Amino acid sequence: MLSGLGRLINRRRWPSLVLILIMTVVAGVWGLGVFAKFKEGGFEDPNASSTLVAKLGATYFGSTNPDVLVLYTSDTMTVDDPRYEASVVTTIARLPKAQVEEVISYWSFNGEAAHSFASHDRHSTFVAVKLHGEDGATQIENYHAVKERLAAPGLRVQYGGAVPLGEEFGEQVVTDIVRAETITALPLLILLVVLFGALTASFLPIAVAVFSTVGGLAVLHVVTYAADVTSFALEVVTMMGVGLAIDYSLFIISRFREELQRGMAAQGLPQGKPWKRERDKASRKAAKTAYKAALKPVRETALAATMATAGRTIMVSGITVSAALAGLLLFPQMFLRTIGLAGIATVMVAVFGATVLLPTLLALLGPRVEFGRMPWRRPTSKRAQRDPDSGFWYRLGHSVMKHPLPYFAVVLVILGVMFGPFLNVQFGSVDARVLPKDSPTRTVVETVKKDFPNGSAEPIDVVVSGDLIPRDWTPSGKGDPIPPYLEQFRKRLASLPGVTEAQFTGYSGSYGGVRISVTHKYEPMDQHAQDLVTEIRGMSLSKDGYPMHIDVGGSTAAQMDLMSSLMESLPKMALVVGVATFILLFMFFGSIVLPLKAIVMNVLSIGASFGAIVWGFQYGHLAGLLDFTPTGGVEATSMILILAVVFGLSMDYEVFLLSRIREEWDLTHDNRTAVASGMQHTGGIITSAALLFLLVIAAFSMAGITVVKLIGVGMFVAVVVDAALVRSLLVPATMRFMGAANWWLPGFLAGLHARMDLRERTALA
């Protein structure tokens, strides 16, 4: 079927090119709309108790994390100065009600309640602003409508809070991606020229990468109509769109050149423009016509053979990578689900670009794919004339075959050492510290934490609800009698170990609930804080024998719920992805041993990557080099993302290697020869693909957001480990040990495999 597709593309190359160009323009125009549809956050479990508490706070009680936190500072006046009060109070009183729902300031309270709104030196205060708007886009619009009006005469003003933080976060992600693409563009082109050895061949992967990225954005825009999409999805679309498109193009172009040279040699057709040797114009024209006529079937056969071999491998690889990314859809977190959708969409577009767009361009170019040939690719160069049964990969393959045990042992020791730090992993949450050190919103957060009485305290929010909550009581009203059962419960919370204060901070008659904020002396993710959340969740409350509902929120509870959700979903992901990968590789390789080995090898690559992340980010060893603030932990959802993407990429290289080994096995049925020959034919290509992908993702390690750095470093280490150690040394050494068992297929499965065989075939129908 794929060889037929190659022949069809060759015969209809011009209509195919026109249709693809139209698709690209339409996709580009449509894809730009996705930038206005991104949602922030999405790290929480939507079904968790802590998420409900956060929603109730935003809807009924007033969020403990204000939409906008305005920090006012004076060098000479304190908050007790009437001029200070007049400046701030007059400013916030003039805010338009159409955009601002509520404003709380130091002067909204009397006595002790106002204490937390003034800094220790009393020269600074903050104002909490709640904006109108049910969605982030509306709140951002309202924020910009009132931002200039928040400036108070005679005072310095800084802006923080959820809305400015989310907006800056999204803008920084886009800035990081644009910078990464700008930084890597020229080095990537230079490396492509070095690897391909011809200018024309070097530009083809760039064309496929642009098509894949544009197409990925277009599909992502479609996804926004069915689900919320985080701005991190843009990073995945860019990274995988460019990286996979270049990887796939490398395999297609390399195979096409190989098949084209073989076909031209068989027909006795020289490379270049032999008709120019003729002396007269008529002879040159006749020779040119004859050459093109002889070349036409060679080009078509080469393209058909390329599609039947490398094209088939790329399709299987794309499905395998998509299966790994599909595991993210099993998690309830919006962050992971939308990145899974974005990744799958981008992979499929990259596969389409490599198996339709690229063959179309190759059909148009034919031997002209070698135009602009570099000296080392010319037939007269020593490199071009080198015996194929020589060179680094030939020697390495045979060395591994002769001494598999030393290679196996050394690689396992290296991977074990790299994995070691992961045994001490600590998971943390995303906060303002992931932004650059000069971030204005991060500055506000850190100032409040450092200079204000309750700045470092992140309370545990306890919401009590039920039909018997009084409808006519407000905890802030003077002289209102507090219902005894609520006051007793508050005192129980206040008496818990480590608790410094427990007070009523919100009430809703329409919801029938009251919020109690429990302040403690621990850091948010300290084990004592987690124990406190667990203890509160184990408490019960009833009135007149009727039980009340108790929901617990806050940053500590949210992180605990996140980890619980991830640990619950991770086995499902492992099972689904493992089974899907096993079935796909069984169909492709006709073995039940190779798929199991491939999965184990990929886990080793991921383990080494995770260890490097803990060493670099949790321990902070890369903080100086990459310029970020260590938080003593790593963000859990980012690790899950790396797990899925790296598993897919590792399987990508596994498929490339084993497909050629399987091809050689079908020809020789000699395991040792098949493995060595497979390494010889694919080692250089896999290493080149890895180098190109590394260049793409390396720039992300220089991003402004720490989480983006973490993802970039994790993938970088995984690709290096996979290409340099696992795929080049460990896989062939393991296959040498296993011998003919690599290809073992029980009789009862042989018939099943015969009906679903996806193997490459060199012989074409």
Automatic annotation (TrEMBL):
Membrane topology: Multi-pass membrane protein
Keyword vocabulary terms for this entry: Cell membrane, Membrane, Transmembrane, Transmembrane helix
InterPro entries assigned: MMPL_dom, Mycobact_MmpL
Stretches assigned to the Membrane transport protein MMPL domain: 56-266, 297-406, 514-744
Domain of life the protein comes from: Bacteria
Coiled-coil positions: none
Record-annotated membrane-spanning stretches: 14-36, 188-212, 232-253, 314-335, 341-365, 405-423, 573-594, 599-619, 639-661, 682-705, 711-730
Residues of the signal peptide: none
GO CC annotation: plasma membrane
One Pfam family cited in the UniProt record for this chain: MMPL
Subcellular location(s) per record: Cell membrane
Keyword Transmembrane helix attached: yes
Family: Belongs to the resistance-nodulation-cell division (RND) (TC 2.A.6) family. MmpL subfamily.
Name the UniProt record assigns to this protein: MMPL family transporter
Species of origin: Actinomadura darangshiensis
